[in-house]
């Protein structure tokens, strides 16, 4: 007759709390290491999409000017359309003031890759429906003075635009931080210095402009008498 034994079977192997904690830390590090490249890839993709959209805006403005002989005014309301400056039956208050891009007028999408409306400003003399653009159309004020002239600087303050190629229109995205940065946050009501450059932690706006020589070139190519 066999003798009974009180020995218990060994417990099945398992994880201790310390081992589980170590595994969680390792998984967290691995996931964090994966999220950083994904975030960087998303930022690059959104930046490229913004640049492509800005080039599309430039082309749309050139097309509008080729058809109408002027550039559109900013949308200073919320209807996404451009009023026509210079017409007695239509009011375009302060065309030199910054507003939103009239995306419906131009047949474009409303928002940048971060869901914000595009900003837009135009030289008043190039948006006057009563006086189509000619080679003699002055920049800025009626007399060609500094009032109303648009300029673009880099982060160091140096001008990116010369007197001959100053912008007749400026358009930009305020970037992922959803606010205008640098000089773009303090533009003047009459005359305006804007800022453009490589995005930094302090500056993430994407700004392009339409220079007068390019506009004239497109109008001449379209058969517009200048």
3D architecture notes:
It is a single chain. The chain has 226 residues and is α+β, with helices and mostly antiparallel strands. 29% of the residues lie in helices and 12% in strands. The protein has one domain (48-221). It has a 4-stranded antiparallel sheet. It has a two-stranded parallel ribbon with strand order 3-5. The longest helix is centred in the N-terminal third of the chain and has 52 residues, at 17-68.
Strand order in space, largest sheet: 1-2-4-6
Number of helices: 3
What structural class do the secondary elements suggest?
alpha+beta
Mean pLDDT value: 81
Give a quick precis of the structure.
The chain has 226 residues and is α+β, with helices and mostly antiparallel strands. It is built from three helices and six strands; from the N terminus they run αβαβββββα.
Summarize the topology.
Elements: H1 17-68, E1 99-100, H2 103-106, E2 119-122, E3 150-153, E4 167-173, E5 192-195, E6 206-211, H3 212-221
Parallel strand pairs: 3-5
Antiparallel strand pairs: 1-2, 2-4, 4-6
Which short descriptors sum up this protein?
single chain, 226 residues, alpha+beta, two-stranded parallel sheet, 3 helices, 29% helix, 12% strand
């Amino acid at each position: 007759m066999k003798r009974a034994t009180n020995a218990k079977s060994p417990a099945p192997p398992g994880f201790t709390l310390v081992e589980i904690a170590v595994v969680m830390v390792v998984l967290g590090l691995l996931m964090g290491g994966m999220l950083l490249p994904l975030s960087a890839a998303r930022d690059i993709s959104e930046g490229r999409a913004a640049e492509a959209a800005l080039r599309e805006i430039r082309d749309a403005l050139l097309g509008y000017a080729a058809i109408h002989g002027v550039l559109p005014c900013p949308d200073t309301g919320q209807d996404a359309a451009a009023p026509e400056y210079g017409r007695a039956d239509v009011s375009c208050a302060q065309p030199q003031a910054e507003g939103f891009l009239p995306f419906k007028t131009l047949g474009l999408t409303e928002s940048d890759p971060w869901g914000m409306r595009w900003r837009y400003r135009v030289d008043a003399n190039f948006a006057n429906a009563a006086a189509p653009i000619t080679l003699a159309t002055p920049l800025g004020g009626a007399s060609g003075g500094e009032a109303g002239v648009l300029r673009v600087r880099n982060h160091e303050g140096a001008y990116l635009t010369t007197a001959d190629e100053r912008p007749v229109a400026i358009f930009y995205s305020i970037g992922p931080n959803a606010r205008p940065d640098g000089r773009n946050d303090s533009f003047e009501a009459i005359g305006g210095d804007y800022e453009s450059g490589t995005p930094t932690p302090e500056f993430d706006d994407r700004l392009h402009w339409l220079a007068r020589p390019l506009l004239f070139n497109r109008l001449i190519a379209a058969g517009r008498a200048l």
